Amino acid sequence: MPCTKCKDDKYKWGKTGECEYATKEACESANSKYNKMQPTPLGKKTYEEYAKELKEFNLSKVEKIELALVDDLKKVVVNALDFRDQAVNSYNIVRKEADNARSDSKSGQKWLDKVIGEYKKVQKAANELGVKVPNEIQGLYDSAVKAGADFTEILKATSSIK
């Protein structure tokens, strides 16, 4: 507690002391043992013990830990953004390939329409002659029809990729 000045220009120690000291220095000198003790509000440790602990506690360690956590967070964010960029690039490649697959399938279907038209001509000619469509031509036609089913399946599968 500090020395405080009274109304009669004398000094007292703390709030409840008597106004008995002529000077502030005399008050502090008479109460020097209290200045050294400086008890804490809880009264468990002396001021010197807390001061020593405070010197031993390095606040920069706390900052280093916090900075390390921030650095860790930055690394995680950078990694997540890298994966996002890779996913976007992969998606763009898939989208382009899906566009190519749709385009190729549509072109294939146009060719398949021509195959069907030509086959019908062959079939009509074979019927007029009273012969069966040759196996080789039938095999080509069957392969073309199967390809048409593949084109349809590809168009369905790629329709949701925009």
Structure description:
The protein has 162 residues and is mainly alpha-helical. The chain has 2 domains: 3-56, no CATH class; 70-158. The chain is built from 5 helices and 2 strands. The protein has a two-stranded antiparallel sheet with strand order 1-2. Helix 4 packs antiparallel against helix 5 (135-158). The relative contact order is 0.06. The mean pLDDT is 84.
Strand content: under 5%
Low-confidence stretches: none
Determine the N-to-C terminus distance: 78 Å
Tally of discrete structural domains:
2
- What string gives the helices and strands in order? EEHHHHH
Query: How many β-strands, per DSSP?
Result: 2
Rounded mean pLDDT is 84
User: Describe the biggest sheet?
Assistant: 2 strands, antiparallel
Structural class: mainly alpha
- Total helices: the number is 5
Overall form: rod-shaped
* Structural Rg: 48 Å
Strand line-up of the largest beta sheet? 1-2
Q: Please bin the fraction of helical residues.
A: over 70%
